[in-house]
Every structure is written in structure tokens, then in C-alpha cells.
Write a structure and sequence with these properties.
Structural class: alpha/beta
Number of helices: 16
Shape: globular
Largest sheet: 7 strands, mixed
Strand order of the largest sheet: 10-13-14-9-8-15-16
Radius of gyration: 25 Å
Helix content: 40-55%
Number of strands: 20
Length: 466
């Protein structure tokens, strides 16, 4: 890949950078709550003071509109910082738990301590959020961090490389610019945690590398997120929320609905309503809309166009390879074994799969790997409960799409092939912490029942106490 705006980090510097951060952590530089709060505020200052630059970079990389850039990237991270600053004192406090009778007198508690030096590998589709949100959690927990943004979103990666040293304590943080070679060199180093957002293939590489150092990992992946639409729904609101969550960022969102499951008798009405809502949002020609994005590069553009070959495109399909434009597209899925039905689309193509009865949706969902998100639109509480109890997914959105991402009190993460581990809010703080357990006892009342020599009498008493 041509190295345009991103200046890659020399490979020989990577082990030295990691060692420098490890030394800073060992010296206790990140331990104080005051330092953590100051660094968190600097992340917020960086975004606020350079909002136009971030907006421009996101437009150049993905043609994100200013509103979308704020909603899903800049404002999202600022809100994350604010939430963390509001709660960090509580998260860092010892968490008391009860102590059993046989261990009295004593007190028991858990204490969050930082892991050490962590590696954060971001993704290109939300190149600000998916780097800085994990970083916020790592800072709050008191870690040093190596940050590896995706070189694919080159303008945003370059901006982060320029700005982070101006705001953060670079004795404790290091941004590494690069691609496969640089990431490979990073993975040779011994980290205390690796946080990766991306695809399944690279996740397997990261897990193999992490195993060499017994490094724990958090993997935020993806999968084919289903969207079940029951005829018992508010069709106008439902289609607004589906179109918003599907075609934000031109469908390049890990939790975007990948395919819709709907009864045959309701499919035509739903498809027509979606078409009208697309045109209401983006106009008759989305290519001219300032609110509709572009595909990140030609590799992914060609991959997406390839999916449409021999498929039943019932809406959209217009494209411009020169500008990497692919219109909002609806495909009526007819061949269950086609690649478009098996692989995560990660683009502006929405599949519609029809069912005889709505209950069949559960079997379709369960026939595929567990998704990162599942969406259900229904006014029927019984059907809602049926879907919740009989399917598995990382998150569930009932009667809305993706909005659960905005609640920092909800852990976000996958299950099975859609990922492992969670973050957001206190869950992210805990991900980058070791929860150390402590029991403190007094020297009084040292009952000898547990000490040898043992006897039947001692055993009988112990059985009553334990």
C-alpha cells in the first residue's frame, strides 16, 4: 500500500518504545488518580480544540458529514470522557464484600489495579472512536498504552499521530503508525493486555501472538447482525431507524443490521417503506447527498460490488468506482449458500430474507455464528421474549438500531466469533484493570480448628462452620 499521508514508524524503534513505556509504568507514573484525570481531560481538549481538523480528516477518509462525525466519533468520545471523569473516583475505590463467619474478625474487599502496558489496535471504519474509546478506559485504569490506528483511514491516522504527542504524556503513551509489518513487530512484544477491533482473520493472528506471552486479549469483531421485523410494529419509525443504522457511514459499521428477516406477506410493504425512507434521508440521488458516505478504498469497493453479481437487486446498485460510491442497495436473498449470505457485508447492501412465519427467524439466526448485535422490531412482548430467550448475540436492540452504543452503562462486546470481552464505562475500566482481592484479618481469636493435628471433633465443627 502506498504510504501517502501516514509516516510509518521504523521497525527498530518499536521495541524501544514499548520498553520505555514499561519503564514508566514500573516507575509508578500512571498510578495517581490526579495524573489519570489530567490525561483524560487532555483527550477531551484535543478533540474540542481540533474538531474542524478531525471533521476534515473523517470526510477525506470516509466522506462523513460534520453531523455524523460528531455523533459517532468526536462527540461520542467526549461523552465517554465526561462519563469516566464523573465516575472514576468511585471505580478506583475499594469494593467491600461480606466475610464468612469462619473467617471473622476480618474485612474483605477488591481493589482495581492497572495491568501495565497495553496495546490498542483500532479499526478504520470509526478511526477516532475505535482508538480513543479503549484508550480512555486504559487511561482511567492507570495503564501505559501503545496506540495503533488503522493506516487504511490514513488522514485520521496521520492527524492522531500529529496531535496525541501535543496533548498526552508521551512518557506513558506511544502511537505506532504502520501496516502489517509494524503490527507484526508490535505483536512480538510482551504486553499486559491487547485490545483489538477488526475482523476475524486478524483476530486469530493476534490471539496466536498473544499466546506466546500469555497475554489476555479483548477482541471486538463483527458478524452478520440480523434484524427481525415483525408485522406488529410501527412501520414508519421502524424504517427510519433501520435506514439510519444501516446506511450511517455507508454501512461500514460492525453493528449495522446485515440482513432483515421478515414474513413473506409483509416483505413488499416493508421494502417499499425502506425505499421511501432512503429517498427521504438521502434524496433521489444519494451520490449528491452531503450526508451519504463513501467506501474506504477500492479493495473494499470491489469486494462489495462482487457480492452483487448474480444477486436479485431490488433497489439501488448504482456505483462509481472512481469516487468509491455505492448507493444504498437492497438485495432480496434467494440463495442461502451465496457468499453474500455467508459473509459479513460491511457496506451499504441490505439483504432481505423472507420467512413463512415469524418464528422461523430464530432458526435462521441460530444457524449462523453468534452476531455482535441483533435487532428486533415488534410490539408483541411474547415474541420479544421468545427471541431474547432463544438466540444469542453480543447486544440486542429492541425497536431501535445501534442506540445501545450510546449508553456507557451497557457493556459492549461480542460472543463466540463476534468477539470476546467487553468495554464502555466501568466495564472498560475493569477490562484494563486487575481486580485484586484482599482479606485483612486480626490476630485475635485464632481458633486452632483448622490446624493439625486433625481429629473427628475438629472435622465435625468445621463442617458446621463452612
Amino acid at each position: 500500500m502506498q504510504k501517502n499521508t501516514v509516516s510509518f514508524t521504523p521497525l527498530a524503534e518499536i521495541p524501544l518504545d514499548v520498553a520505555r513505556l514499561q519503564a514508566s509504568f514500573s516507575a509508578g507514573k500512571t498510578r495517581s488518580l490526579e495524573w489519570r484525570i489530567q490525561q483524560l481531560k487532555q483527550v477531551k481538549n484535543m478533540l474540542q480544540e481540533n474538531e474542524p481538523a478531525f471533521t476534515t480528516a473523517l470526510c477525506l477518509d470516509l466522506k462523513k458529514s460534520p453531523q455524523e462525525a460528531w455523533l459517532s466519533e468526536i462527540g461520542f468520545v467526549i461523552s465517554d470522557v465526561d462519563h469516566t471523569l464523573q465516575h472514576i473516583h468511585k471505580w478506583c475505590q475499594p469494593q467491600k464484600v461480606s466475610t464468612p463467619l469462619f473467617a471473622q474478625p476480618a474485612k474483605s474487599y477488591s481493589l482495581a489495579e492497572p495491568l501495565g502496558t497495553v496495546l490498542i489496535i483500532g479499526a478504520w471504519n470509526y478511526p477516532v472512536q475505535l482508538v480513543l474509546a479503549p484508550l480512555i478506559a486504559a487511561i482511567a485504569a492507570g495503564n501505559c498504552a501503545v496506540i495503533k490506528p488503522s493506516e487504511v483511514a490514513e488522514h485520521t491516522a496521520s492527524l492522531l499521530a500529529e496531535l496525541l504527542p501535543q496533548y498526552l504524556d508521551m512518557a506513558c503513551f506511544q502511537l505506532i503508525s504502520g501496516a502489517v509489518e509494524e503490527t507484526t513487530e508490535l505483536l512480538k512484544q510482551a504486553f499486559d493486555h491487547i485490545f483489538y477491533t477488526g475482523g476475524e482473520r486478524v483476530a486469530k493472528v493476534i490471539m496466536r501472538a498473544a499466546a506466546e506471552h500469555l497475554t489476555p486479549v479483548t477482541l471486538e469483531l463483527g458478524g452478520k447482525s440480523p434484524c427481525i421485523v415483525d408485522r406488529q410494529t410501527n412501520l414508519d419509525v421502524t424504517t427510519s431507524r433501520i435506514v439510519w443504522s444501516k446506511w450511517m457511514n455507508a454501512g461500514q459499521t460492525c453493528v449495522a443490521p446485515d440482513y432483515i428477516l421478515v414474513e413473506e406477506s409483509f416483505a413488499s410493504e416493508l421494502i417499499q417503506a425502506i425505499k421511501l425512507k432512503i429517498e427521504a434521508f438521502y434524496g433521489q440521488s444519494p451520490e449528491s447527498s452531503p450526508d451519504y458516505g463513501r467506501i474506504i478504498n477500492l479493495h473494499h469497493f470491489d469486494r462489495l460490488v462482487g457480492y452483487l453479481e448474480k444477486e436479485n437487486v431490488v433497489y439501488g446498485g448504482q456505483l462509481n468506482r472512481q469516487t468509491k460510491y455505492l448507493s444504498p442497495t437492497i438485495v432480496l436473498a434467494e440463495k442461502n449458500q451465496s457468499s453474500i449470505m455467508q459473509e459479513e457485508i460491511f457496506g451499504p447492501i441490505l439483504l432481505i430474507q423472507t420467512l413463512k412465519v415469524r418464528h422461523d427467524a430464530i432458526a435462521v439466526v441460530n444457524s449462523k455464528p453468534k452476531p455482535l448485535a441483533l435487532y428486533l422490531y415488534t410490539n408483541d412482548p411474547a415474541f420479544e421474549d421468545e427471541v431474547l430467550q432463544q438466540t444469542s448475540s453480543g447486544s440486542v436492540g429492541i425497536n431501535d438500531g445501534m442506540l445501545f452504543m450510546a449508553n456507557p452503562n451497557l457493556p459492549f462486546g461480542g460472543v463466540g466469533k463476534s468477539g470476546m470481552g467487553c468495554y464502555h464505562g466501568q466495564t472498560g475500566f475493569n477490562t484494563f484493570s486487575h481486580i485484586k482481592t484482599v482479606m485483612k484479618r486480626k490476630f485475635l481469636f485464632d481458633v486452632a480448628l483448622r490446624y493439625p493435628p486433625f481429629s473427628r471433633f475438629k472435622l465435625s465443627i468445621l463442617k458446621k462452620l463452612l
